[in-house]
Amino acid sequence: MARVLVIDDDEVSRTLVKRMLDGEGHLVEEAHDGAEGLRLFGENTPDLVLTDINMPGLDGHDVIEAIRVMHADVPIIAISGGGATPKDELLLKASNLGAVEIIMKPFEFRQLVGAVERALGP
């Protein structure tokens, strides 16, 4: 069981991820944007962060950069459904910033669980 922080401005996506990870026995905390995510991260460092890329204000790239400064060894999974910039480009940048896994929306349960297991390691 891991403590997981899910940062996503889309309530439906955030709730779906929470339910999936709760079902796997993880303790999930939710943030509705990057600023709230960084605040929660600072209050109680999680074992894993899942962040959407396209969010208003602090986007996922900003979140990844800030977390890498605060706590370089916490694994981060980047998630994106795209937008004006192609998903591949957004996720490649996230990977270059330090995301250990990338997932494209829409995703399946097994994709999410597999990425979480790989990110957390043995």
Short description:
By secondary structure, the protein is an alpha/beta fold. It contains 5 helices and 5 strands.
Characterization of the model:
The chain has 122 residues and is α/β, with parallel strands linked by helices. The chain has a single domain (3-120), classed as Rossmann fold, CATH 3.40.50. Helix content is 47%, strand content 20%. The chain is built from five helices and five strands; from the N terminus they run βαβαβαβαβα. The chain has helices spanning 11-23, 34-43, 60-70, 87-97, 109-120; strands spanning 3-7, 27-31, 48-52, 76-80, 101-104. A five-stranded parallel beta sheet has the order 2-1-3-4-5, with helices on both faces. Strand 3 (48-52), helix 3 and strand 4 (76-80) form a beta-alpha-beta unit. The longest helix has 13 residues, at 11-23. The chain is globular. The termini are close together.
Question: What is the CATH superfamily label?
Answer: Response regulator
Which structural category fits the helices and strands? alpha/beta
Radius of gyration: 13 Å
Overall structural domain count: 1
Distance between the termini: 12 Å
How many distinct beta strands?
5
Instruction: Determine the fraction of residues in helical runs and give it as a percent range.
Output: 40-55%
Q: Describe the biggest sheet? A: 5 strands, parallel
CATH class call: Alpha Beta
State the strand order across the main sheet.
2-1-3-4-5
User: β content, as a range?
Assistant: 15-25%
SSE run: EHEHEHEHEH
Low-confidence stretches: none
**Average pLDDT rating:** 92
Shape: globular
- From the 3D coordinates, which CATH architecture would you assign? 3-Layer(aba) Sandwich
Individual helix count? 5
CATH-defined topology: Rossmann fold
